[in-house]
Amino acid sequence: MFKDTEAFGSFAVNDTERAEEFYGGTLGLEVSERSMEGHRMLTLRLAGGALSVLRAGV
């Protein structure tokens, strides 16, 4: 049932600006930004097209 379903991982970070600097600058991953309900979220594009979403922890 789920074998052809695309999935993504999500985790909280304390500082989205530092996370963007680390994942984009240090690790060289493609990072995009979006806002959801006034909260900044980052999306990391991983090998094979997989996505991971970073959000500010509460």
What overall form do the CA principal axes indicate?
globular
Q: Mind summarizing the main beta sheet?
A: 4 strands, mixed
Radius of gyration: 12 Å
Distance between the first and last residues' Cα: 34 Å
Strand content: 35-45%
**Helical stretch tally:** 1
* Oligomer designation: single chain
Order of helices and strands: EHEEE
Which residue ranges are poorly predicted, with pLDDT under 50 across at least 5 consecutive positions? none
Major sheet strand order: 1-4-3-2
Helix and strand content put the structural class at alpha+beta
Task: Fill in the keyword field for this structure.
four-stranded mixed beta sheet; 58 residues; 4 strands; 1 helix
Report on this structure.
This protein has 58 residues and is α+β, with helices and mostly antiparallel strands. The chain has a domain at 20-56. Helix content is 19%, strand content 45%. The chain is built from one helix and four strands. It has a four-stranded mixed sheet, with helices on one face. It is globular and about 35 Å long. 7% of the residues are buried. The mean pLDDT is 87.
Outline the fold blueprint.
Layout: E1 8-13, H1 16-26, E2 30-36, E3 39-45, E4 51-56
Parallel strand pairs: 1-4
Antiparallel strand pairs: 2-3, 3-4
Describe the structure concisely for a colleague:
By secondary structure, the chain is an alpha+beta fold. The protein has one helix at 16-26, and strands at 8-13, 30-36, 39-45, 51-56.
